[in-house]
Specification:
It contains five helices and six strands. By secondary structure, it is α/β, with parallel strands linked by helices. A hairpin with a 2-residue loop joins β1 and β2. The chain has a single domain, classed as 3-Layer(aba) Sandwich (Mannitol-specific EII, Chain A). α3 packs antiparallel against α5.
Length: 159
């Protein structure tokens, strides 16, 4: 799986169209989660448990799945981009094209909220969401997405 990596943030392409398989693809395909080492499977289970409670598909083709473990040292964000779309049971009934997965600790709630706020602010713009999906589904290049990526990269998600 092809991925592009930044500090605290990683982007990968998704082929899965089912929610839990797509979450697993982000966790396995975004190298940022390799830093979790022995805790990667525990994190995966935490994300799945959270998703079972209630969908994290927020609408407009976006989902923000997350899991928290006390042993996670910093916030990490993976973004999986799906050209076909993921059947995610989103609030608006639409498929998801941008699947964010956030790992954090319950002890770093402020950093988690900063990351979440940055993502929400970034994906609020319909044109930006469309450009990200369109451009990244083909490759990881594209000037239209630079402001989005720069905002995420500059966030650094952890102090």
């Amino acid at each position: 799986m092809n991925s592009k990596d930044y500090e605290g943030f990683s982007v990968c392409h998704l082929k899965s169209t089912e929610k839990f398989a797509a979450i697993d693809d982000v966790i396995d395909g975004c190298k940022i989660f390799d830093e979790l080492k022995d805790n990667k499977e525990r994190f995966r289970r935490a994300v799945h448990r959270r998703e079972i409670i209630e969908t994290t598909g927020i609408g407009h083709g976006v989902a923000i799945a997350h899991g928290k473990l006390p042993c996670i040292d910093k916030v990490r964000v993976g973004l999986g981009i799906s050209e076909e779309g993921i059947d995610y049971n989103s609030k608006d009934g639409k498929v998801v094209h941008l699947l964010f997965v956030i790992s954090s600790s319950p002890f770093t709630q402020i950093n988690y909220l900063r990351a979440l706020a940055t993502i929400l602010k970034s994906v609020h713009d319909e044109e930006l969401r469309s450009n990200i999906s369109r451009l990244f589904c083909k490759d990881f290049d594209g000037d239209s997405c630079d402001s989005f990526l720069q905002m995420l990269i500059q966030q650094k998600f952890s102090k």
